[in-house]
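Hi there, hope your week has been kind to you so far. Thanks so much in advance, here it is.
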Amino acid sequence: MRREPLTLSTVKRMYSFFSRHEVDKSSKSWKEGNSKAEQAWLGWGGDAGFRWSRGIVNREKKKDSASDTKETTTNKTNKKKESKYTIQLDSGDIVGKRVPKPTTISKNYVSTLEKLVKKMTDDTDKQLKKLISSQQAKDYDKLLQKNTAQDAKSYVSLQQAVLNALITKWTNAFKSLSKPISQRFINKVNNKSKQSFMYVTDKMPFDSKKATLRTPANLKESIKGAVNENVDLIKTLPTEYLVKLKADLNRAIAGESANYADIQESIEKSFIKRTGQVKRRARNIARDQTNKAYSSFNRTRFRNAKCSKFVWQHNGGAKEPRPLHKDVLNGQAFSYDDPPVIDEKTGLRGLPAEDYNCGCTERPVFPV
């Protein structure tokens, strides 16, 4: 008698035999003890063999069922959602390469605005320290205690004068620098867009180099608009920063119980708060405008090359990616003339990089 382990296939055959011939146990020949079926039954292990093989087969069925359920669940989970604006590409469409991201330009623009903002905040810090150490500030409590409110106003007047001087100085500085900064930045973005166009359209059925030799009217308008938008945004930085700081300090001395310690604390807290805000705003402007201008120029070039469709490409670099952009729009094709919803809360429809601080790009689709 061989004592070799039985394969699952053999066990299944055993169970199949027992299942088919269980009905024979009620036959006359079986009861009389002369049934060939009974002999075969005993040969396979009898009732014990039936119970054993049935247990093995049932256990394997449960494993298979669990595996099928897991696979079905996984498929349902992994099934990609679609935007209702998704379109199907034609068989003859050519999908271009992914548009490269303008990372270096963005970093340089952030650095430029940060340096400019630092000059303003450093100067503000210096002037506020002079203000808080002035004799008028130190005498503020004394004058209030003597009920010489009119004399105490000398500090209030000094504070207003210092902040107004800062507002005027830095508003003019940012105004004069905003145009050349914006023009240099946009020129870099436009040059990068030219390079990207040639890279993306390489091996396309048209001369991509020839297509970038001249700047069409619609692209000139996009460039002009981008410069003006950046000029306006840069000019808001000193206004928002210093005007809000002035309002904070005015509130600090408005109360009847205000004293020198309150003023000192208010200046320190407000300076830290408003400086942090203006630095973040400068970085956000630089990153957002880089993405918007770059995408706008690329898109104009693509449209001029008879491209009407694109495939959305999620950037994959954000710490907290937008689920809609990552899980729904990414990899799907859309029409430039009928773009998808890019913000579910507002219902805003648009193209890659048009949502605030969106770093998504696209792969243009060209007809043959």
In short: The longest strand covers residues 361-366. The radius of gyration is 38 Å.
